[in-house]
Structures are given as structure tokens and as C-alpha cells.
Amino acid sequence: MRLLRSRWLRPHAGLLLRRSLWHPTPRGVAIGLACGVFFGILIPFAQMPVAMLAAAMLRGNLFLAVMGTLITNPLTVPFVYLGAHRVGRWMLDWSPRAEIEATVSAAAHASESFWTQLKNFDFGSATLHLCVGLSAFAVVGGLLAYGIGYFAIRWRERRRPASATAASATPTSPRT
Predict the structure, then answer these.
(1) CA-to-CA distance for 65 and 16, rounded, in angstroms?
(2) pTM for this structure?
């Protein structure tokens, strides 16, 4: 595999080429999907390699780890980041008094120009709110992905033997 010749993945080639990491087992699917969703939401760059390495170390499915990172793509990133910022702000400033003060402050700054607002914007607290919100989204998303992946593959496995036994129960004509 030419991909494993890269200087970043070469040290981990033995781990990444294990056959058990590519077959769908309930635990492997759940861990792979959870790693992909977790790192897809949490970090904005190098999501796929990080998710693959984490899934490989936890013995999760590597294909689903990569596919799970696609939860954030150019169409969903603005909504995820805006929601994460709002959730982070809510988590850190959850008192009603702080909400009233923020509303009064926003009303006072409404008449200011865009550049004045940008100059007075507190990027430190906005970054903290975003990091807290992304962490919360990543944990909740990872747990949901684990549960959905685990129960989906278990449901698939339960359905498969029923169809396989039905196919083998049909009588076949003996050859003469």
C-alpha cells in the first residue's frame, strides 16, 4: 500500500495492516465510528489520521473511523461551530444574571460600527466558549456514535442468520 509509505504512517504500518481492524465486529464498528465522530468534531485538521490511529490503538474499525470524521465537512462546519460556541457560552455563563447582562450589552453595542465591534471583541472568551462547546459535542457525539454503531451491527448480525437459514431450508432437487 502506497499510503503506508508516507513518513507519518510508516511507523504505524504494522498496526494499520491488521486484518481484524478492517472486519465489522460490533465492538470494532462502535469504537471506529465513535473515534471518527469524536475527532471529527473536536479537531479542525488532521482528523482522519488521528481518528485512524486512535481506532487502531483501541482495536476499532479503521474504515468507519475515517468515515466518522466526515460528520464535519464544508457544509456542516459553520453550524457545528456556531452551535458549539453557543453551547460553550451557555455552559460557562449559565447564570440568569449573566444572560441579562449579555443582552443589555448587546443592545448597547448594536449601534456601533462593525469595525468597532470587531476591535472590542473578546477573542479569548470566544475561543474558550468554542473549545468547551466542541468538547461537549465531541463527547456526546462519540457516545451516540458508539451506541448507534454497536446496535446497528448487532441488529444486522441478528437479521443475517435468519435470512441465511431460510435460504438453506429450501429443498434442492437431487441430481440424477
Answers:
(1) 12
(2) 0.69
